[in-house]
Amino acid sequence: MPETLIIYSSTDGHTKNICERLANFFGNTNATKTISLFEATKFDLSKFNQIVIGASIRYGKYSKNLYKFINLNKDILEQKNSVFFSVNVVARKPEKNTPETNPYVKKFLKVSKWKPKKIGVFAGKVDYPNYGLFDKYAIKLIMFLTNGPTDTSQSYEFTDWSKVDNFARELYLNS
Fold first, then answer.
1. Does one domain contain both 40 and 80?
2. Same structural domain, 19 and 45
3. Do 11 and 63 lie in a common domain?
4. Residue 79 has pLDDT above 60, yes or no
5. pLDDT at residue number 114
6. 134 and 60 housed in the same domain
7. Per-residue pLDDT tens over the stretch 136-158
C-alpha cells in the first residue's frame, strides 16, 4: 500500500503540476499516490503514513471542498505526518512567501483549525491565454491593483521550482 498520499486542489492545473513534481522525489510510484481532492474523498487515509495536501487560491479563497475535506478528516490528518502547501500569486512577493507571512495560509490555518506538521507556500501562475473572458479580466484587475503583470496575451509563472524541490526533499527525508 502507498505510504505517501499527495492530494491536490487545483483550479487550472498548476497545483497538480507541483504535486507531481513532489511525487517524483519519492521515486517508487508504488509508495506514492497522487490524486485530486475529489478522488481523496473515496480513500481510507488511515492507510497512509504521510498525507500531503496542496491547494490553490482563486479570488482570495481556497475551494469550499478543501475546508469540508479537512473538517471531515482533521483527526486522522493530525495523527499522521500531514503536510499542507498553498499555491498563490501573492507569494510572488518576498514578504508574503512564507507560511508565517502569507495571508491565505494564516487565514486557512485559523479557519480550518488544522495543525499540519509541515507547511509550505509557493508562488503560482497567471495564465491569461487559457482563462475565460471573465477570469482573464478579473485577474487582470487584481494584478493591476497588486502591481502584477497585466498583458493578457502572456502567461506568467512565478513558481520557484528550486523551493519546490527543497520542500520535496524535506518531505522525502521525513517520510
1. yes
2. yes
3. yes
4. yes
5. 95
6. no
7. 999 999 999 999 999 999 999 99
Does residue 85 share a domain with residue 152? Answer: no
Give the range of the structural domain holding residue 140, as residue numbers without chain letter.
127-158
Instruction: Note the pLDDT tens digit of each residue in 81-112.
Output: 999 999 999 999 999 999 999 999 999 999 99
Q: Rounded distance, CA 159 to CA 14, Å?
A: 9
The answer on 98 and 137 residing in a single domain is: no
- SS3 readout for the chain: CCCEEEEEECCCCHHHHHHHHHHHHHCCCCCEEEEEHHHHCCCCHHHCCEEEEEEECECCECCHHHHHHHHHHHHHHHHCEEEEEEEEHHHHCHHHCCCCCCHHHHHHHHHHCCCCCEEEEEECEEEHHHCCHHHHHHHHHHHHHCCCCCCCCCEEECCCHHHHHHHHHHHHHHC
Write out pLDDT tens, residues 44-78: 999 999 999 999 999 999 999 999 999 999 999 99
Mark whether 45 and 98 lie in a shared domain: yes
Q: Return the amino acid letter for 145.
A: L
